[in-house]
Amino acid sequence: MTPQLPTPQEMLANLVAFDTTSRDSNLPLIEFVQSYLADFGVSSELVPNTQGDKTSLFATVGPAGTGGIGLSGHTDVVPVDGQNWSTDPFTLSEKNGRLYGRGSADMKGFIACVLAAIPDLVRRDLRIPIHLLFSYDEEIGCIGVRPMIAQLGSRFPRPSIVIVGEPTSMNVVDAHKSINAFVTGVTGHEAHSSATHIGVNAIEIASELIAELGRIGDDMRKRTGGHRFNPPYTTVNVGTIEGGTALNIIPKRCSFKWEFRGLPGIDEKEIGNRIRSFADQALIPKMHAVSDATGIDIRQITHVPAFFSRDGSEAVSLILKLAEKNETHTVSYGTEAGLFEKDGCPTVICGPGDIEHAHKPDEFVSISDLDACMRFLSRLADHAESGL
Ligand SMILES: [Zn+2]
Fold first, then answer.
1. How far apart are CA 229 and CA 129, in angstroms?
2. Whether residue 381 has pLDDT greater than 90
3. How far apart, in whole angstroms, are the C-alpha atoms of residue 59 and residue 72?
């Protein structure tokens, strides 16, 4: 029996129907992909998480051995909680040339195109292998791809080029900032609100730390080193804060989450060191003067490395040619690209859809973007077939 040849749109409808919100399992989607690939004689290998409820997938079309071109995509999506959608987010809906659904742009559209290209890839006599690298838990800090990257060069071949298909409207992206997220917990000393002389107010201490982060952010703004980025400097932001129990109690606890997004090439330790030494020098002595049980805990919870292709990267010039573009771009969101690049895989980001529409209600990818991605993959297949 000849397997059915799906269009990218039909494939995307299949993928969107699997609710792969990062907190949930992606196994049903991966099983679907595995059996689809198997229909075309492509075997795939899994890299499950320790709980066994999520997995990455690695597969190769073409000759075995090292090198080749990796097509990388994350299978998880951000939640739809609290978002006001006009259509069911897990049913792909077409309207005016746009395909609406959670993950349509970020980034099941790319995965759908890659899967729809499989029948063409397997019928060709590829000299350069094409690898599929599908991950999970990207949306919560590029977690899932790391164990798979750790096995490149041993269990799996290490691709000579990786294309991360995050939404770039099919532009070629060769750089993004790093993401560094922290949680800071302040332990103060509880007392009646009238007895400020014997208490340590955790909210006040947190406020001093936050004011210092503001000053650090101002300093970063003066160091504009990355003119290709918008904005062209490292940014610092405090995202959430909680603390205190009642108006008439000096609060014992306050914690806040903050992040910085660093330009490629900066000293990534600087900001953490600066806030820690401010805590140690300006705050801890006065806190300990009241109670030794007080303290400040600054803990990094996420690090997604910055991404920048090496100058004159062959990967960039090849992908520019295949994408029929003349110039590279930067993006302001983090991706798995920095992790691949760090592991020695020259990487670019290029995929259908616009990041402007990702993570929002009524997320969509345009049919024309999917078509452009299919043409790109077909030129990529020509290249892999020629072996040049
Ligand atoms: Zn994404």
1. 34
2. yes
3. 11
Q: What share of the chain is helix, strand, coil (3-state, %, to 5)?
A: 35, 25, 40
Distance in angstroms (rounded) separating the CA atoms of residues 92 and 17: 7
Type of residue numbered 242: E
Question: ∠ CA(122), CA(125), CA(128), 5° rounding?
Answer: 95
Does 380 or 66 have the greater pLDDT score? 380
Question: Looking at 24, 39, 45, 76, which residue is catalytic?
Answer: 76
- Give me the sign of the Cα torsion angle 166, 178, 142, 309: positive
Give residue 52 CA to ligand 1 midpoint distance, Å: 22
Alpha helices in 172-223 (DSSP H): 202-222
Known catalytic membership, residue 336: no
Contact 222, 235 (CB under 8 A): no
- Closest by CA to 296, choosing from 285, 306, 307, is 285
Q: Residue range 302-329: average pLDDT?
A: 90
Query: Tokens 């978002």 label which residue?
Result: 83
What's the gap in Å between 177 CA and the centre of ligand 1? 15
Predicted TM-score (pTM) of the model is 0.89
Structure tokens belonging to residue 381: 């297949």
The CA 106 to ligand 1 mean position distance, Å, reads 5
Please state the rounded mean pLDDT for residues 137-164: 96
Contact 58, 131 (CB under 8 A): yes
Answer yes or no: 190 catalytic. no
